[in-house]
Amino acid sequence: MAAPVLVALLAAGCAMPVDREPRALSATTTTASPSTTPTSESGNGIAFLYFLTNGRLDAISTETSSVRPVDVLALLFDGVPAGTHSDLTTQIPAGARVLDASLAAGTLTVNISEDFNNMVGSGRTQGIAQIVLTATGLSGVRRVTFQVEGVTTLVYSPLVGDTETVDECDFVSLLPDPASLPDREDATRSQRELIDRIEQASDGCDDG
Q: pLDDT (tens digit, 0 to 9) for every residue of the chain, 208 residues total?
């Protein structure tokens, strides 16, 4: 698939309770600086972790010592960072861990612990969207496949149903309404990331 397109809202379904308990992070989070894109897999860099606000994807800008996919996803799986706004939530289960993440020809294969299967219904789709939007914001990652304890698993795409491979276009229906975001010149780095994703969606993704 190409870069994102706004599609119809994901139908509401049964979601497991979200997790707001912060867990220790090895990176410092910020939402106030100008946008920066990581240029290497080692050394300090910027990554955007995707959580949820009122059921919609919301980006948090994070300074990290490594922008390798496995390390950035580990930060996402650590849960909502302390000090973020109170409406921010996650659907990724507290016990879930990234066991491995390998990139080949633009496809990131993410191997997750068995706790991944604790996500159900629309909550599972939202949790998968968090992972996919976080991963595809990293250099070289265009699409994601999922494994649970080393076994490839199907995931639900709002566009095509159950599938082995998804990208950001599968989940643009979960991006926020552009009207809810400030103008670019008044936006924080994290808000600019969301604006960029929404603009890419309107420019590039095939509709359904």
A: 444 433 333 333 444 444 544 444 344 443 333 333 443 444 468 999 999 999 999 999 999 999 999 999 999 999 998 888 889 999 999 999 999 999 999 999 999 999 999 999 999 999 999 999 999 999 999 999 999 999 999 999 999 999 999 999 999 999 999 999 999 999 999 999 999 999 988 887 876 5
In three-state secondary structure terms, 135 is helix
Q: Does residue 195 come out as left (phi exceeding 0), alpha (psi in the -120 to 50 range) or beta?
A: alpha
Handedness of CA 70, 74, 75, 77 (dihedral sign): positive
Task: State the DSSP code for 15.
Answer: B
3-class SS shares of the chain: helix, strand, coil, % to 5: 30, 25, 45
- Distance from C-alpha of 51 to C-alpha of 92, rounded to nearest angstrom: 9
Name the pTM for this structure: 0.79
- Residue written as token pair 């000090």: 83
Find all residues with CB under 8 Å of 37, minimum gap 6, and list them. Answer: 46, 139
| Sequence ranges of the domains in the chain | 28-203
Q: What would the two tokens of residue 111 be?
A: 């191997």
